[in-house]
Please model this.
Amino acid sequence: MEKLFLFLLELSPKIKRTLWRWWYQNLVRSYPQFDWKFMNYGFCDVNSELGNLNLRQEDEENRYFIQLYHYLASATDLQDKIVLEVGSGRGGGAAYIASYLKPKKIIGIDFSQENIQVARQTYRQTNLSFQLGDAEALPMDSDSFDVVLNLESSHCYASMTRFIQEVYRVLKPGGIFSWADFRSVEKLESLNQIFKQSGFELIQTTNITPQVVQALLLVNQRKQKFIDSYVPGFLKTAFQEFAAVENSEMYQSFRTGKNVYLNYVFRK
Ligand SMILES: C[S@@+](CC[C@H](N)C(=O)[O-])C[C@H]1O[C@@H](n2cnc3c(N)ncnc32)[C@H](O)[C@@H]1O
Model:
């Protein structure tokens, strides 16, 4: 099943986009649990880069997923800023930022109507909203955001070039774009070329694969338990790959260096 999915993903950018939308729409329909707030691989602070990140008791169970957001967001001070998150999923990350990092406002955009609905139902903060939208055609005015964040979403896009052009368009001059996602090492050259031609000034690049791999290990049991309890047999392997549980090909690809997880920070 997952082999067919991976094969179809490579067929054409349009099919890739359609398949990912289908996947995320169905994920919410099948697993609407409001306590499932994050869909990233997480970040374990192995190098003590985050300082002492104090979380409320109710957020502790999502610490590693939150830490990945915190790492992404610490590219710049978000206080009183106007922030856009592209690919906000179930909304946990934007909600964390809205309540802990105090932007003036943060808008989460996602192309899954179901994700947007769950996020709106789960979070009600005055500086936080969610909107349906496509990363490759952002429904926002030009020069309107101080910061754009994008976490573990861009591997789904049909055109990375169009996405980067859109981020550049909606950011104010001097605005910051913090991006994090995984890529196969083979595709890094072409990705870097897209960034190079974007007009952005590259401020920082960090390989955070070790932090992500450690987080994957630490949340492994919880994910495996979820899959064992809720996922039907014929979908189990596909889910294990999606969640990068220990010994999945996805997890192994990080261990062997075939895939890397990166954070790049840019200024317009
Ligand atoms: C792995 S999830 C990560 C979600 C969230 N950033 C998090 O860390 O929990 C990827 C998200 O990107 C969204 N996405 C994929 N392609 C998109 C597109 N073209 N436009 C907007 N959102 C997209 C998916 O619907 C999904 O919510």
